[in-house]
Amino acid sequence: MADQAKWQALMKWTMKHTDGTTPTEATPISEDKRRFLEMVMNEGVIDENERVKDILRILEGEDPRLVFAKEDGTIADEDNSPSPEELAQYKDTLLDELLTRIDQIDNAQNFVKMGGLRIMINVIKKYEQASSRALAAEVCSVVVQNNPYCQDAAVETDLVLQKNFFIRSAAAFITNEDVDLCESAVEGLAEFAMIGPDFMAACKKSEFDLIAKCNERIKQIDALEDEDKEFAQETKTRVEYLKKVLTV
User: Fold this and answer.
1) Across all residues in the chain, what is the average pLDDT?
2) Do residues 169 and 139 share a domain?
3) What is the pLDDT of residues 207-220, one digit of tens each?
4) Are 18 and 48 in contact (CB under 8 A)?
5) Could you tell me which of 167, 189, 196 has the C-alpha nearest to residue 238?
6) GO biological process annotations for this chain's record (predicted)?
């Protein structure tokens, strides 16, 4: 809910009618109270599909302030334009949010129907920020994993034809010192490889040398000391999992 004060008002209204320690007498709710409750509860519910549509519009280049303009056309912070760095960071946040919204089969299929795969491919190809490209690759992999409908859509959107480009883009992040980039890349590649035989064969091509890159990353982690090494163990586990997938 955008306005925290409305949640507080709802809580106060509830506490006023019962403190939970004594029986209360049920009485018909007035029309004003009913409208108030409906308004508060409706604002507290996010339409998942609409949210994803808004995110995709922003990732395609629309101004977030226009996307989230009020129904009357009012634009929040119209005179306060974000810097390119702030906008890039915000888009990373949105890509990360997509990962949490498309992990269910129905949501993944709706994402595909909205043209989400095409937009992710565009992010991988054209965005300058490395973290955005890695996150977009992970989103593609999550969407198509164990989802025949989305896998068919991947063929139609040329994701399959561009799988070499996809793998090359993600592979570059395996040895990146940024932990988040590395983890997004190895998770995306592992899921991508398991889509089907063609994808697995592509990931095993010598030109990408994914296993060698995994070994290099593991050596980097093993060379760390103390807390740095301990902190990197989760990354190491994910890299080792990708190796396991590729050696089956």
Assistant:
1) 82
2) no
3) 999 999 999 999 99
4) no
5) 189
6) proteolysis
